[in-house]
Specification:
The chain has 311 residues and is α/β, with parallel strands linked by helices. It has one domain: Rossmann fold. The protein is built from 7 helices and 10 strands. Bound molecules: S-adenosylmethionine.
């Protein structure tokens, strides 16, 4: 455990004070488990976690998963989801980020298949957030896939939702009411606008500053929006399929307690390294800012197949 739990207040961990615990305790600031998430979940008491954010394997044959019969996959996910619901606090939230299972060119949206696993646990869906990104495989027999979804479920109606923490700049901040009792007054919320349920955030591809060797890591800013809106400082944020630790990094930099499980040592080790860097404020993170729009006189913006451009 960190020697001085107050350190998280000002976020000035130093290497010798940082401790990554391997066994869960509600008092730990950081717990990272190397192994199967179902084994780790057994350590976690009922109703102790405020927020669970994860992106599970998609059953598409990545190096960390064995492609299996889709019914078996759903039943494996169901076991993890049941356990996640057990450890979730009454005012807590679960965010399951997921894409498509692809079989012989047919796509099967996994969120649709997994929806019942949450509903059978009496959870309530608050948003199906569409995460839109710009880069990915180019398909020739269907339109190229450029989004995944996040199912955000709550355990009860008394859930934490800090909208003001994630408001975005208004498009027309100077707009005024033109009729009615408020005529002449500014019509937009000065704190910014609701970010909506469609999020445009670059995915982590090769030139992204957060890129590690993991093939499907979360951008930190995606997780950060969920953490800021669905939990409070010092709450516990948990990721059962940790990968290289993006969820816990986002938690640490926002002063949450964090926990996660990762089955592959090579990703677990990178998660630990990123946690140490994050604690020391040395991890490179892309801020949550609008997607870059190329402009100006860049030569690659000119279409070489257009004769007009070649004059
Ligand atoms: C889609 S990736 C998650 C990536 C993560 N969001 C990140 O930003 O790095 C899923 C991860 O779950 C891990 N995994 C698969 N089965 C697991 C299990 N039973 N318990 C724990 N981790 C598992 C895989 O090794 C993989 O790194």
């Amino acid at each position: 455990m960190l020697e001085n739990p107050e350190m998280i207040e000002n976020y000035s961990f130093s290497d010798n004070k940082l401790k990554i615990n391997r066994t869960f305790s509600k008092d730990n600031l950081i717990t990272l488990y190397l192994g199967d998430c179902l084994d780790f979940l057994k350590q976690i008491p009922d109703s102790s976690i405020q927020l669970i954010i994860t992106s599970p394997p998609y059953n598409i044959g990545k190096e960390y998963e064995r492609k299996t019969d889709i019914k078996k996959y759903v039943s494996q996910q169901n076991r993890v989801i049941n356990e996640c619901v057990r450890v979730l606090k009454n005012e807590g939230s679960i965010c399951w980020e997921i894409g498509n299972y692809v079989n012989n060119g047919e796509i099967i949206p996994l969120d649709i298949l997994l929806y019942d696993c949450f509903k059978n646990n009496q959870l309530q869906l608050r948003n199906r957030i569409v995460w839109h990104f710009g880069h990915g495989l180019h398909c020739s027999k269907r339109f190229s896939g450029r989004y995944e979804t996040i199912l955000w479920f709550t355990k009860s109606d008394q859930y934490i939702f800090n909208l003001d923490n994630v408001r975005m700049p208004q498009k027309y901040p100077g707009k005024k009411h033109f009729k009615g009792p408020n005529v002449g007054k500014y019509s937009s919320n000065p704190k910014g606008k609701n970010p909506s349920d469609v999020w445009d955030i670059p995915n982590v591809k090769n030139n992204h500053i957060e890129k590690t060797c993991h093939p499907c890591q979360f951008p930190i800013s995606l997780v950060q929006r969920l953490i800021l809106s669905l939990s409070n400082e010092h709450d516990i944020v948990f990721d059962p399929f940790l990968g290289v630790g993006s969820t816990v990094v986002a938690g640490i930099i926002n002063r949450r307690k964090v926990a996660g499980a990762e089955i592959l040592k090579k990703y677990y080790d990178i998660a630990c390294e990123r946690v140490v860097l994050a604690c020391n404020n040395k991890l490179k993170i892309r801020p949550d800012k609008p997607v870059y729009q190329p402009g100006g006189n860049l030569s690659i913006l000119k279409n070489p197949f257009n004769k007009e451009n070649n004059k």
